[in-house]
Structures are given as structure tokens and as C-alpha cells.
Specification:
This protein has eight helices and five strands. The protein is mainly alpha-helical. Strand 1 and strand 2 form a beta hairpin.
Amino acid sequence: MRTSDILFEQLKRFEGLRNKAYRDAAGVLTIGYGHTGPDVRPGDVISDYWAEHLLKADLYDIEKQVETLGHWNQPQFDALVSFAYNIGFYKLKTSTLMKTIREGGSMRAIKQEFNKWVYAGGQRLKGLERRRAWEAKRFFEADEMEPMKVRDWSDFHKTE
């Protein structure tokens, strides 16, 4: 499964583009659209093109990881990829959020679990509140492709 265009554009808004390496709210060295890792060094500068490339490469890895957690419709997948991109796959995998989802928790319980993850560097952040609200809403949206997946096309091929 792949990240939807909806999520890709939303992630760019959530993360914001920073062409020069900086420390995020948790003190992690970051560049582009939230890219972190050993390849990010103080003083690094990248182009807009390279920032988008790094986002796509990071998402590719997270997509594969999120797929290992279950079978998702597109909105659920997008919500979980966004969450994992922000906090890390291991934290998603071992979270009470994932446990609640796997146990078939109610919409209210799952939304509450998303909303617990609004802190960085010990502070509650408005940006994370907005992000978690979007992820929780997206998780429960109807899959735009679902009607296409279940549609019976047999009558289309009937001959009179």
C-alpha cells in the first residue's frame, strides 16, 4: 500500500519545509520535511527538490513497516503512516493506540489514544494537537476506493 496524495500534501503542511538543518521541538536534528537520521548534520542545506525526495524515501520505509501491522483501508493507512512518521515506527507498534486498534476499540477510545501523543520536549504543542486530530479523523474516514473494490461488474458484461 502507498501513501495517498492527501497524506503526502498534509505531511508537507504538518512538517513544514526547512531547507537548513535545525533542532526540532524534541531536540532532534532535522531537515526538509521532518527528515532525521545520521545523514543530517549541523549546517546542512538542501534544495526543495531534495527535501521532497527525502520525504518520499522516508515514507517508503514507513509504508513497508505499517503494512506489517495489519490490513488497512487507505484512510487508516494514511493515519498510521503519519503517526509513525512523526513519532517513529517502534513507538507506534508498541503503543496503546495500536493495542486499542487491534482489540477493536471504539471510535472514542481510538481517538483518545491518538490525542495522548501531543507532547514534544515535555510540552504540549498546538501543532501536534492539530496533527493528532487530523490523524484520528482520517483513520475513521470512508475509503474512497471501497466502492470500486466491492462493485459487481458482472452485469456490465451481459449480452442481450
